[in-house]
Amino acid sequence: MKITFDRRSLISLFTFSFITLVFFYRPFTSGMNPGISVIAELAAFHICTYLCVRYDIKKAFRPQSVFFYCLELCLAASFIFFNNPQLLFLDFLALTALTSLHIDYLISEGDEFRESGIVRFLKDLFTRPFISIPSSFKEIRSMKGFYVVLISVLTAVPILLIFIALLSDADAVFSYFLFEKLGVDNIPKILSRLLFLAMITVLFSSYIYSVINRKLINSGMEIRLSFPSIGSLIPLYTVLLPLAFILMAFSVIQILYLFIGIGLPDGISVSYADYVHKGFYSLLACEILVLILISVSKLLFRDHYRSKTLKALYIILLISASIMTVSSFMRVSLYERAFGYSRLRIYVQFIDIMLLVSNLLMMISVLRSSAFSFRTHLIVLCIFLIFATYFNIDAYIAKNTVKRSSPDRHYLLELSVDAVPYYIGNYDYDTYEDLENLNRLYKNLEDSDIRFFNTGKENASGFKDIISKKIKETEAKDLYEVYIH
Q: What is the pLDDT of residue 1?
């Protein structure tokens, strides 16, 4: 069946593309925080998708759909309140994943969210519509007059460019009207905007085309990823049994020497301070690997999900991983107490808490003999990402760093504008890196476009004069280079 877009669908497609151009061209090309534009884009995407696909609107008001709307809104609103680039990038990825799951739920026949919705979304966007491109080109080439139009355009463009160059060089008034009034010198910028508009139009049109096609041929069945099921448990026991003994021994050491603090063995030439201040990154990696190992083994050995021995091994591994998580959290907390806060250290603490929750959910899944749910862990990840973003890590670091007797004033300038109100007037700066960061902060505060409204920038904008003064003072000094940890 050949699919054609009606007038309402075409208007929706071009409206969404135009909205994307207005709100996202500058953030896309400059890397700036899009601010309130994310909410406008999210709303436009949902509305235009409904107008094009016309799914059952009642599904949008069911509890599970409302829950996803709330998560999406929280993630989109984070771009209004905060400016931490790493967390905002993760928020964008999480928002894309959640929206793809949500849209797949709204347009599907069933009443459940499906993990395959993300895979289906990517296929709808990038794969299915472009399969017919070669045949489309054949049809275009067979059209009468196609080559005539193409040759005419290719001939006219260079001839016109030659005449424009000669005439503008010959007459100053003509050149003035051409370049100053009509802005011909802005043609590259105009072309780049048109290219961006075309790209968004093609991608969104391809997505809608695939969704309508899938709806028409009633192919909304769940896509299940096919994993081979391994019959024998010997390979799994060969890996899990020794790993379980190693992790249990490690857990006992953590309880005795870190949690209880009975004192290090005499033969160790490491101080207790060095012992507790190291290892949290390695422990974090081990925790994640344990979760991945259990998730993969549950997929590959799903025919043995009722095995009591296997359940016991899973529980031992998860308890050991939870002890490692607590150990990692304690170590990084002690390290922060001694050396101060940083983004990476606080990220580790949030990940540790999230992994504890994931371990608990995995234990419940093992005890209930239920399958691994990617959707559940994705939602947990998104919720903790929202908590981490709204915690405002940069402001928290700045508020606590200024209280220290020897604060790292260089590192504070590495943070986003969210931290500026808490430290900028307290210190003087004297390095090239400081000057670059001061200029970066000042540039971020200069843009007052309402499309990219952000409360963090608004709070820091009252300190623009102080930043400008610090820039002038720093430029007047003999600057030196410093390595910022």
A: 42
Q: Mapping DSSP to helix (H, G, I), strand (E, B) and coil, where does residue 101 land?
A: helix
CA 453 to chain centre: 20
pLDDT attached to residue 283: 84
Closest CA to 80 of 36, 115, 134: 36
Q: How far is CA 48 from CA 15, 55, 126, 130, in A?
A: 8, 12, 19, 21
Q: Is the dihedral of CA 406, 407, 411, 413 positive or negative?
A: negative
Contact yes or no for 356/325 (Cβ under 8 A): yes
Packing angle, helices 280-300 and 308-339, rounded to 10: 160
CA dist 389 and 90 (Å) reads 10
DSSP characters for 12-54? HHHHHHHHHHHHHHHHHHH----TTHHHHHHHHHHHHHHHHH-
Contact (CB, 8 A) for 21 and 197: yes
Question: What is the separation of C-alpha 146 from the centre of its chain, rounded to a whole number of angstroms?
Answer: 44
**Domain locations in the chain?**
7-134+190-216, 144-182, 234-391, 406-475
Cα distances from 396 to residues 183, 408, 427, in angstroms, run 47, 14, 18
Predicted confidence at residue 72, as pLDDT, reads 93
Residue written as tokens 């234990």? 363
380: helix, coil or strand?
Answer: helix
Residues with pLDDT less than 50, the chain = 1-3, 133, 136-137, 139-140, 143, 218-227, 482-485
Residue type, 313: L
Residue 208, CB-side half-sphere exposure with 13 Å CA sphere: 30
Q: Do residues 101 and 117 lie in contact, with contact meaning Cβ atoms separated by under 8 Å?
A: yes
The per-residue pLDDT for 428 is 78
Q: Are 419 and 363 in contact (CB under 8 A)?
A: no
Q: Record the tokens describing residue 133, joined without a space.
A: 């491109």
User: Could you tell me if 300 and 229 are in contact, meaning their C-beta atoms sit under 8 angstroms apart?
Assistant: yes
Per the listing, tokens 């593309």 go with 17
Instruction: Judge contact between 354 and 387, C-beta under 8 A.
Output: no
* Cα 132 off chain centre by: 32
Q: Sign of dihedral through CA atoms 341, 343, 349, 350? A: positive
Reduce the DSSP state of residue 448 to 3 states and report it: coil
Burial of 288 (0-12, 13-18, 19+ CB in 10 A): middle
Question: Which of 277, 408, 440 lies closest to 343 in space, CA to CA?
Answer: 408
Give residue 356's pLDDT: 92
Task: State residue 390's pLDDT score.
Answer: 93
Long-range contacts of the stretch 44-49 (C-beta < 8 A, 24+)? 44/15, 44/16, 44/19, 44/20, 45/16, 45/99, 46/103, 47/12, 48/12, 48/13, 48/15, 48/16, 48/204, 49/103, 49/106, 49/208, 49/211
